[in-house]
Design goal:
- There is one protein chain.
- The chain contains 8 helices and 7 strands; from the N terminus they run βαβαβαβαβαβαααβ.
- It has helices at residues 17-28, 41-53, 68-82, 105-132, 155-175, 196-199, 202-211, 220-231; strands spanning 8-11, 32-37, 57-62, 87-90, 138-142, 181-187, 242-245.
- Helix 3 (68-82) runs parallel beside helix 4.
Length: 256
C-alpha cells in the first residue's frame, strides 16, 4: 500500500541531489509531485520523465525561491492546478566557500536568500494554504549538520542552516493548532553535486571519510526515505525535531 496516495507535494530544488531523490520517492508512494527548479530545466524534465515512466504524476515549476514573489507563485501555481497542498519540502540550498574576512554582501545575501529566506517564505505560503483548506500538512526543511556544527570558510551557510533550525522549532508551535507538523532533516556528507568539490580532492575526501564512523558518504535515497517517514502518517506526533542523518559524524570524537 502506497503511503502518500492523493497527496500533493512541492519539493524545491527537486531537479537534482537530495531533492531529486525525494521527488522520486514521494512519487513512488503515490504523491503528485511538484518539481521546482531555479535554472536546470533539463534536469527537472529528466526527473519528470522518470516519474511518468513509473506511472506517477508530476509538474515542473521554475522559481528562484530567494525571490519572494517567485516563492509565492510556486505555491499559488500548485494550488491553482491541484486545489491542495499536503507536503512542503524546502530543499533548495547553496553555499559559497570563503574566509569570513572576505565574504561579500552579495555572497551573504545570495546564500541567505536561497537557504533561509526561501525556506521561510515557501513554508509560510504553504502553511497558509494548508490552514485555509484545513489540511493536516507536513513541512519538511532540509537543513544540515551545520545548523549545529561549525564549518570554517562557510559562515553564511552555517548562519542560514542555524536559522532554519530555529525557524522550524518556532513555527511548529504556531502551526500545531492546525495539525501541521514542521521538522528538519540535517544531512551530513551526502553524495550530491554540492559536495562534488570534496569528492574531487583525494586528500579532503580521505579526511572526511576518516571522520565518518561508517567510512562512506550517504546516498540521496537514504535521505529520501527519512523524508518519506516525516511526510507519512507514521510521523503524526513528530514536530519541531531535527533528524540528523550523517553516518555518525556528529557524535564521532575521533576515537574510531
Amino acid at each position: 500500500m502506497v503511503q502518500l496516495a492523493q497527496k500533493v507535494a512541492v519539493i524545491t530544488g527537486g531537479d537534482s541531489g537530495i531533492g531529486r531523490a525525494i521527488a522520486l520517492q514521494f512519487a513512488a508512494e503515490g504523491a503528485t509531485v511538484v518539481i521546482n527548479y531555479a535554472h536546470a530545466r533539463e534536469k527537472a524534465e529528466q526527473v519528470q520523465q522518470y516519474i511518468t515512466q513509473q506511472g506517477g504524476q508530476s509538474l515542473i515549476i521554475q522559481a528562484d525561491v530567494s525571490q519572494y514573489q517567485q516563492a509565492q507563485n510556486l505555491i499559488q501555481q500548485t494550488v491553482d492546478r491541484f486545489d491542495r497542498l499536503d507536503i512542503m519540502v524546502n530543499n533548495a540550498g547553496m553555499e559559497i566557500h570563503s574566509p569570513f574576512l572576505d565574504v561579500t554582501e552579495e555572497q551573504f545575501d545570495r546564500v541567505l536568500g536561497v537557504d533561509l529566506k526561501g525556506t521561510f517564505f515557501c513554508a509560510q505560503a504553504a502553511a497558509r494554504e494548508m490552514v485555509k483548506r484545513k489540511i493536516a500538512g507536513r513541512i519538511i526543511n532540509i537543513s544540515s549538520i551545520h545548523e549545529d556544527l561549525a564549518m570554517p570558510q562557510n559562515a553564511p551557510y552555517c548562519c542560514a542552516k542555524g536559522g532554519i533550525r530555529m525557524l522550524t522549532r518556532t513555527i511548529c508551535l504556531e502551526l500545531a493548532p492546525y495539525n501541521i507538523t514542521v521538522n528538519n532533516i540535517a544531512p551530513g556528507a551526502i553524495h550530491t553535486p554540492i559536495d562534488a568539490d570534496v569528492e574531487a580532492d583525494p586528500e579532503k575526501m580521505a579526511a572526511l571519510l576518516k571522520e565518518i564512523p561508517f567510512h562512506r558518504m550517504g546516498q540521496p535515497e537514504e535521505v529520501a526515505r527519512l523524508a518519506l517517514y516525516l511526510a507519512s502518517d507514521a510521523s503524526t506526533y513528530v514536530t519541531g525535531s531535527t533528524y540528523v542523518i550523517d553516518g555518525g559524524l556528529m557524535v564521532n570524537t575521533g576515537a574510531l
